[in-house]
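User: Continuing from earlier, I have the next pair ready.

Assistant: Great, send them over.

User: Here they are, in order.

Assistant: Folding the first of the pair now:
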Amino acid sequence: MSRLLPKHRFEEIKREQRQAKLDKRRKVAVRNVSVSFLIVCEGERTEPNYFKALIKDRYSDIREVTIEGKGQGTVSLIKETIAIRDKSNKEFDRVWAVFDKDDFNDFNDAIQLAKKNHILCAWSNESFELWYYLHFQYLDTGISRSQYIEKIEREIQNRTNDSNYRYKKKSPETFDILQRIGDESLAIKHAQRLRESFSGTDYAAHKPCTTVYELVEELTHPEKLL
């Protein structure tokens, strides 16, 4: 005949079993907590390549990211973002549209349309390359995309002693180069400083300026959104 456990020991075992079940449920709940991102980019490769490299470089078990490059700009991109979100079977916590000012005349309209539809904008005036250049230097003079590229090339050539370096717009290696010889924390400070130097809602006149840093910070620290 098996020996009966003392009553107090039996109660201890029952408590341990209940606690183990509770701990297991908590672990499952933690794993199921996540922030789901939809990022729809104007460019088909440049911006998607950058953000794909960023999330690959910074693993997070509470972040889910869907990235699409559409080859559309401003208002048409916002409309496409709305359509993708509304047709998706997934419910996204954060929906971002990534686009540039370039020569578009509906830049302000795009930002306003996004706000009305609860879409966040990582916009750049004039181009996404401004965000790249801010990894090296602060710049408060409005210049063209080609001039940004010239400045980026010069910075990388000087820092790597490689006079043959040429910026490749769609290169998947750009993120790694910026991380290796640039300074992302400095880029964020530079971008914030530019943002604070402008006021009002005529975003087309906010040049140079970029809000890309806001998306970068959310992807890097999704736990702050919980």
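And the other member of the pair:
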Amino acid sequence: MILETMEPNPVWNADAHADTVETLGDFADATFKIWGADWCGDCRSQLPDFAAALDAAEIPDDHVEHYPVDRDKQGDGVDAYGIEYIPTVVVERDGEELARFVEAEREPIAVHLATQLESAESTA
């Protein structure tokens, strides 16, 4: 099942977030796992911009996995990844978690993940 909230925001400005887009693009070989729900207000407000950032970074569709949850926040991978809040996004490469965004971070999903990914890249 695909999250409708992952439909890219058509007015999101990639040029205003060039560094973020570039960093995400550097991880085009990673997998972006998104837990969310179309009924969730936080998902509806945050995921379209994130989807637009993934598009701008040219992340292949087969590297973006959707994990819809029900109103009890149950669904595929919830227990295995310790998902409590949505949206949650986990970035993995070769089975290793590189970055994670959880619902109430103070910055947008793409910016938060890009910052973590830059740190992961500099320590690699």
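Worth noting for the second one:
The mean pLDDT is 95. The first strand starts at residue 31 and ends at 36.
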